[in-house]
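Handout, page 2. Input:
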Amino acid sequence: MKTRVEETIGRHDKGYNCAQAVACTYCDLVGVDEETMFKLTEALGLGMGGMEGTCGAITGACVLAGMKNSTGNLEKPNSKGASYKLSRQIVEEFKNQNGATQCRELKGVDTGKVLRACPDCIRDAARIAESVLFADEEK
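Output:
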């Protein structure tokens, strides 16, 4: 698959939050239109709205994991374990690369030491999503 990493930055520059920038860039690969994905991920930016939660770029990638992997079986949910495994891989790779997953920590709110700026978090999450979720996709 041709990389779309820089497309995520274009969306962020337009005002998309970090989750939207990642999730919307790949939404066509998981069968969701961009407006729906934009709405689904709107409250996930800024560490889920207040810098206290997981980085929005990571949560956007994890939304993609669920959309790509879920069987959608409402009567007998049977794909959670595999989806959790993909999400865990995304989160662990991001944490290994950046030293944290919480927005507040990445931005150095309490320490004054920025570990990673938003555009770099977005690029990292997009690269990880591409390798974990879309490595076998056609161009």
